[in-house]
Amino acid sequence: MSASPHDGTQSKLAAQASEGAQHEHPTWAIYKWVALILTAVTVVEIWCYYLPAFVATPMFVPTLLVLSAFKFAIVVMFYMHLRYDHPLFRALFSGPLAIAMTTIVVLLFLFGKLAIR
Amino acid sequence: MATVIIPASDAGHGYTTTGLPSRKIAIWAFIGSECMLFASLISTYLIYKGRSLTGPFPHEVWKDPATGHVFKPILNIPVTSVSTFVLLMSSLAMVLALAAVENRDIPKHTFGERVLGNSRLWLFVTALLGSTFLSFQAYEFTSFVHEGLTIRTNLFGSSFFTLTGFHGAHVTAGVLWLLTLLGIDFKRGLGPADALNVDIAALYWHFVDVVWIAIFTLVYLIK
């Protein structure tokens, strides 16, 4: 493949190639903190499960969903390096994920598991 | 037409016109499709939740009207909490394995640097933790069957075994993939040139982990 000297996108794409091959990764310290946070959040989730007074409140399910989404997000951002990686990878993951989440919510409405009162 | 300059050292590694490795784009596209597969399984579980006519049930006691036998809530949260912790820690071991492969050529001076830079150790630990998770799942499935819940018992059993069984099959594939990488590492050593291969395996492994994060909350904790 020959490179044209007048092609303005050439250097940008070459930089992208380099970025795609060797993107920046977090350090051991960040990995350690992510693991500690994941453990702590999991402990909080289980603690919530064993609190009957909290389970009976309307806040129980939203709290667990938020904690679970937080754990999901930090694994994807730091362990899967999506925070540091090329935007195309972010799009390839978040696009189908958005479709998947929308499908779950729509099906739950359709089958009467969720309702707007 | 836009052209891309690829470093000579990367020639033949399959780069797309975006300048990104085609295999990495492929694994992200695959993970995207897997999101939709697990979304369909999770939504099926949630739709069927609470619609079983006979027990055992996940969180409630059930008395069989025919025999009078009382079935306890079948989900064992303490055991599953431990297996969840095991899978989360396997993700930590996996990122350390990838970092060790990427930094193989950097000299290690201290004991800590040598431990952190040992890709064989971290690949082995990841595969071991994955196998431990599978052992917990085998124990859980066996105890459920002994307590009277099979894939044919009720809607809960059908959707639960299908969802967690599919996840377990993915973990099994991941463990085999990790053992293959470990074998290659012992045979010829994995270095920075192999980082993309390990990165792709790591992405798959972390995806299996994030799916379990969702399953643990939606299936086990939410009553």
Write the layout of secondary structure elements.
The complex is a heterodimer of chains A (117) and B (223).
Chain A: H1 10-21, H2 28-49, H3 52-55, H4 60-79, H5 87-110
Helix pairs in contact in A: 2-4
Chain B: H1 22-48, E1 62-63, E2 70-71, H2 77-102, H3 111-116, H4 119-146, H5 155-188, H6 195-221
Antiparallel strand pairs in B: 1-2
Helix pairs in contact in B: 1-5, 1-6, 2-4, 2-6, 4-5, 5-6
Question: What's this, in brief?
Answer:
The complex is a heterodimer of chains A (117) and B (223). With 117 residues, chain A is mainly alpha-helical.
Secondary structure class of chain B reads mainly alpha
Structural class of chain A: mainly alpha
- Strand order across the biggest sheet of chain B? 1-2
Domain module tally of chain B: 1
- Please mark out the parts of chain A with pLDDT under 50 across 5 or more consecutive residues, or reply none: 1-21
CATH class of chain B: Mainly Alpha
Gap between N and C termini of chain B: 57 Å
Round the Cα radius of gyration of chain B to an integer and report it.
Answer: 22 Å
- Categorize the overall geometry of chain A: flat
**Tally of separate domains of chain A:** 2
Number of separate strands of chain B:
2
Count of helices of chain B?
6
Distance between the termini of chain A: 61 Å
* Secondary structure: number of strands of chain A: 0
Spans of at least 5 consecutive residues with low confidence of chain B: 1-9
CATH topology label of chain B: Four Helix Bundle (Hemerythrin (Met), subunit A)
Q: What portion of residues of chain A is helical?
A: over 70%
Could you walk me through the main structural features you see in this protein, from its secondary elements to its overall organization?
With about 120 residues, chain A is an all-alpha fold. Chain A has helices spanning about 10-20, 30-50, 50-55, 60-80, 85-110. In chain A, helix 2 packs antiparallel against helix 4. The termini of chain A are far apart. Mean pLDDT of chain A is about 85; it is low at about 1-20. Chain B is mainly alpha-helical and about 220 residues long. Chain B has a single domain, classed as Cytochrome c oxidase, subunit III, four-helix bundle (Four Helix Bundle (Hemerythrin (Met), subunit A), Up-down Bundle). Chain B has 6 helices and 2 strands. Chain B has helices spanning about 20-50, 75-100, 110-115, 120-145, 155-190, 195-220, and strands spanning about 60-65, 70. In chain B, helix 1 (about 20-50) packs parallel to helix 6 and helix 5 runs antiparallel to helix 6 (about 195-220). Chain B is elongated. Chain B starts with about 20 loop residues before the first helix and ends with a helix.
